[in-house]
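Amino acids appear as letters; backbone shape is given numerically. Here is one record.
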Amino acid sequence: MYNSNVIIIVTREWEPIPLFTYVKSWEGKILASNIETKVDNLLRKIIEDLGYELYDVVYEKEGKDYYLRIFIDKDGGIDLNDCETVNNAINDILDEADYIKDQYFLEVSSPGLERTLRKKEHFMKQIGNEIMVKLYRPIDKKKEFSGTLTCYNDDSIGLDIQGNEIKIDLKDIALAKTIFNW
């Protein structure tokens, strides 16, 4: 068993590097959001039955390579053994489903301490907590804000910044992440 403090430090220092990686060989393409939805629907129950939460599925291209990233979580955090357990459980299922025709890297990892907020449930869990938001276009000449998430609805969030609340349209958010105070 890994010491969770060590895993957290390694995950933080090497955040762009996955804990577990495999290569898959395929041919062809499907849109990322469609793949993400299909993979989420395919794997959610399997991962939950193993005792983990499926936090997110991300399919994206970096350089010339495609990545299917499966982010898992559980109380007490995730270690390398957890990633291996989930990888072994989903690997053949993904092969059989054959949703992705291109070669891709499969990564199973923790969403990290400072996790990306992309879905309604991500935002809802963080109401009352501090988050950072980067925007596509500026509000009052600023494109980055940090504050307490006060609300979420289908088209915007509320952010309290030192007592001043601002509304940010979801369509304007390039990136939203939790903030961990080290």
Q: What stands out?
A: Residues 45 and 151 are 29 Å apart (CA to CA). The chain has a mean pLDDT of 84. The chain has two domains: 4-109, 120-178.
